[in-house]
Amino acid sequence: MGNHRCSGRARAQRARVVQHAFPVGVAEAGFAPGMLLYLTYWFRQREQAQAVALFLSGLPVASIVGAPISGFILDHAHWFGMSSWRWLLVLEGIPALVCGLLTYFLLPSRPEEARFLTADEKQWIRAELAREEKGKLKEHQHSAMQTLANGRVWCLASIYFGMLIGLYTLNSWAPQLVKSLSTRYSNSVVGLLVMIPNLVGLAGMVLVSRHSDRTLKRRYHVAVLALAGGSAVISLRATHSAFFSVAAVSLLKNGVYGFMGPFWALPSEFLTGFSAAAGLALVNSVGNLAGFVGPYMVGFLSQRTGGLYGSMPFTGVFLFASAILVLLLPKAARLPGA
């Protein structure tokens, strides 16, 4: 009877988690593809890897800054009879609300509305973007529905899914992975060790995106980073040293963060207008399914293999598959004026 009550409480708890998580997912689902599309209104294709990388650098920065803040809230916020995890959601949700309001009033939709640009600068941006769009329309012209059935778009979605398997696996299991190296490590030490890969990933995002924009060889940048990340995650099984484990996780973080700039520059090589909006949304939606598949499968395999290290090859397979798929993509047409 006791086991039935426990399983019933567990099911009820999982149902509450899904009930709360679903509206959060609905609310944020359009944010990433919307922002990626927004950047194409401002930056030429040869500059988009850096623009995307700087925008997405908020991911490692949030991990670096947010972890100690979240820990402090969980330890000290017990006000007005409300539990600390609820205060965590409230306090960390307030900045998003404030920034959303500020964005509506302060962020211009197009360069034509920007007060910080001169008339000549606005005209130059319009002319450059129009020239690129004309070149893309000459090579590829898709409707929104054709984009959703386009094999190249689905290949990009598969690549993104494989890379995010690595990212979400790291975000979910990296602290436990580091803590399993030694029982002597306190939570504070684990937090500091986990910060190191995020710092490496942040540096990789900036440096890789700059090199990608200089060479315009997006596919090779993504492939090399996927191969490096796959090799790093598989090498974790061969070592239980704190130094080499943190080094391998850092290399993996560099791969799964560094690929984002050159990767998100790939759709804009052949998509424009409504087709770009549909394509970006599809790639982002399919890729983010990895947020469920990756951590769940790693947890499942860890139970079967007796530890996290035994489940790491699962993540590496997806990273290697992403490297192969990106190399199968057709080469981009030469940009005007490149």
Key traits:
2 domains; Growth Hormone, Chain: A; globular; disordered C terminus; 338 residues
Q: Which oligomeric form is depicted?
A: single chain
| Shape designation | globular
CATH architecture assignment of the largest domain: Up-down Bundle
The CATH superfamily name of the largest domain is MFS general substrate transporter like domains
Largest sheet: none
What is the class of the largest domain in the CATH system? Mainly Alpha
Task: Give the H and E element order.
Answer: HHHHHHHHHHHHHHH
Give the beta-strand count: 0
Which structural category do the helix and sheet elements fall into? mainly alpha
Q: What is the domain tally?
A: 2
CATH fold-level name of the largest domain: Growth Hormone, Chain: A
SS summary, helix count: 15
Helix content: over 70%
Strand percentage: under 5%
Distance between the termini: 72 Å
What's the alpha carbon Rg, rounded to whole Å?
A: 22 Å
Mean pLDDT: 79
What would you say this structure looks like, in words?
The chain is mainly α and 338 residues long. The protein folds into 2 domains: 10-76 and 143-328, Up-down Bundle (Growth Hormone, Chain: A), CATH 1.20.1250; 111-139, no CATH class. It contains 15 helices and no strands. Helix 8 crosses helix 14 (290-305), helix 9 (187-215) packs across helix 11 and helix 10 packs antiparallel against helix 11 (242-258). The protein is globular, with a radius of gyration of 22 Å.
